[in-house]
Amino acid sequence: MTASSKELLTAFFAEFIALFLPDAFVYLDASTLKFLDKELFTDVTAGDKYEVDLLVKARFQAQDAFFLVHVENPSTAHADFPRRMFTYFARLHEKYNPPVYPVALFSFDAPLCAEPDRYRVAFPGRSVLQFECVVIQLNRLSWRTFVTTPNPVACALMAKMRIARKDRPKVRKECFRLLGTLKLDPARSKLIGGFIETYLQLNAEEMKQYEREMATLSPEEKEITMVLMSSWE
What is the reported pTM? Predict the structure, then answer.
């Protein structure tokens, strides 16, 4: 997980759950979120060490029971990723005991093929194990689906979604327009703005088109966006 991705999910974890896991958000008490220390696991057979990207403890709504949300954000595709997610799940469950909700957030640009969401151990006529995790693959999501979603995570992650080359200036404009409507405090606003600028960089020709796109905003939208960007500078 890159530093910017971890900062984003740490600052807006409840919003991340609300956006991509609405069924889980219903029973999650967002006021109880606690970010746990990194877990380090060693693959004895391969000799590799792995750190859990993000581990969050949360309480069920109106209950004394807790559960863990484990989020991995790999920057590249891995053929054995489902098995690795199962290994993390098993070790976290063994150590902490509460239920573990496993989530994989894929933010790489390629490949575009769907990443697997399950790990299975089976014999002829018998299934021994079937482990499933939630897979969120940004390069298979269209930015158009989220352009009117008033959620800071949507605002940031649109920059990593499926975007036609010709639409890149427009998406950048829409990201900043949406950010202006969220009315966040300066620090959180700057965090999202920095994420957009990092992952949706434009060349000189695209910047000219971006400026033309910005000119299509209403006077009120343009003023809010310009004040926002000036405050970062």
Answer: 0.90
